[in-house]
Amino acid sequence: MASGIPRISSVAALGLALFVAFTFRQNAPHDSTACRYLPGDEEWPSNDDWQQLNASVSGRLIATLPAAHVCHDPTYNAEACAELQESWYFPWAHFDHPAAFMSAYHQNASCDPFGPQSSSCEPGHSVEYVINVTEAADVVAGVKFAQEKNVRLVIKNTGHDYLGKSTGKGALGLWMHHLKSLKFIDYTSDAYTGKAVKMGAGVQAFEAFEAADEAGLQIVGGQCITVGLAGGFTQGGGHSLLSSKYGMGADQTLEWAVVTANGTLVTASPTQNSDLYWALSGGGAGTFGITLSLTAKAYPDSIMGGVSLAFQTESINDDKLWDAFAYFHETALPPIVDAGAHVQWVVWGPVFYITEATIPDATEADMREIFALFTDYLTTHGIPYQMNVTSYPTYLSHAEHYIGPFPYGTAPSAQIQGGLMFSRATVARNNTDLVSLIRDVATTTDFWIAMYALNASRALPSSPNAVLPAWRDALSYLLAIHNWNYSVPFAVMDEKQRLLTQEVMPPLQEYASGAYMSETDFMNPRWKEEFYGENWERLSEVKRRWDPEGLLYATTAVGSESWEVAGDGRLCRAGSVQGRVGLGWTDHFTVGRLKGLLQGYPGLF
């Protein structure tokens, strides 16, 4: 590997070994005009090319190694491996590593912390190089290099991504994680006058919440507090504990600083490059441009009412459980969200558990009154329940209790999932059939059910945006989840993914009005209509205008229909890979094969 380009590991031998592997690997034939290049291709950028890129970004180019290489020979480190094994199921294992990402499916079992120490650690679906972005010029350099060298380009902040958007085999990654600037300002425009927050693309929800608290403010951010706010959260729409009062995350956007696919830094607002502003505000991340910063609305802090509630029945298939579920969903829930609540609940075995309900400006008495319809039902039907009611003085203290502890929370991320939203009208007309389907999933498969509810029509955006219109009519959102099992062969989990896409979700989809593009099944065959709805054609026009060459690709993003991933992980124009011999994502030289290849070179191993 080129000297002067740092690795995240200092093990020079492995770096050289990987370079030799890439040099000697035989890739499948490809049409160089239709596919992005991979290491080992004759057209792959030379060492001098990478050196020049490294110099242009002041030495911030990183030649990556998989995060879990510390769990495998020849770079095994027992202490580091043990730490990684404990954290691997959680988002924070992945966001401080330049190439790591949390989607277990896209990790493809190529290099995780749980295989034998002697097993090989393959690059798999990881990016090849990463630019640690600190300023716009770094992004411009990466964009121009990828365009000129026909290399896949990937944007990553935290890697908090269930759909595999923040990685790509053989790609050059733009790592936005260290753009942590954050300040609160007074903002004035034709659309909005008031407090605002301007934050770099690397700012995560917990950082923004803590800074807002110090300023006496609150902002709309993810209930998973490690998400990056300017990326997939806001650009994907973004639901929040505050959404029934202030709207979706994308409803808060005032302006964006963006590097476009031709390497130009622009401002996107309702009055400047308004089509790009519209698309970035809810139309999906990773495809219209590379965001450097987001300016969004901020609000005065206030007291926050909260509720958690749980009850348990004799079994998961107990009529009492599902009758109560049905009553809550159809009768009790609409007035709760209309009072300004965001509510999330799960069915885990025989337990129904409201993990969080949030209403800004509400007292404990308010919360008890708002939930009385449901608690009266439980009492009348002889269902004992436990209920905790709170009213915290600030949003941060409320969030600490319900979605903390800060800074990272406790929610795991190693899972596969399918997600769908249900409109009020659908629930009112079809709740019995819908709950019967949900019950069937919970009782006859090993997927469990998580749901949340909000009223995203109570506070509409001050400027038009690309938020999926179905959010405005949605009552609830369902997630069917299977926790990832790293102890079984990948083929077992691949079958779970097939089951999710082909059997679990289709009956529910018949009742769905859409899906949240950041929390759903990346293999969903209906992704265009469910993720984008009536916005699809206009979003496609914006994509063609701002990225006519299709440089920016992300799974299920607008424009992704023009590309396909070949059997060897290579990104190719749609229709250009027919008849290709795929090698599979992890068909790399193993360390063992490399040892045999390099036995004549003393000191390497």
TrEMBL record:
Top-rank taxon, per record: Eukaryota
Ranges of residues in domain FAD-binding PCMH-type: 122-301
Note whether Oxidoreductase occurs among the keywords: yes
MF terms in GO? FAD binding; oxidoreductase activity
Q: Which InterPro entries match?
A: BBE (IPR012951), FAD-bd_PCMH (IPR016166), FAD-bd_PCMH-like_sf (IPR036318), FAD-bd_PCMH_sub2 (IPR016169), FAD-linked_Oxidoreductases_BP (IPR050432), Oxid_FAD_bind_N (IPR006094)
- Annotated keywords: Oxidoreductase, Signal
Coiled-coil parts of chain: none
Q: Which residues form the signal peptide?
A: 1-25
What the record says about family reads: Belongs to the oxygen-dependent FAD-linked oxidoreductase family.
Protein name from the UniProt record: FAD-binding PCMH-type domain-containing protein
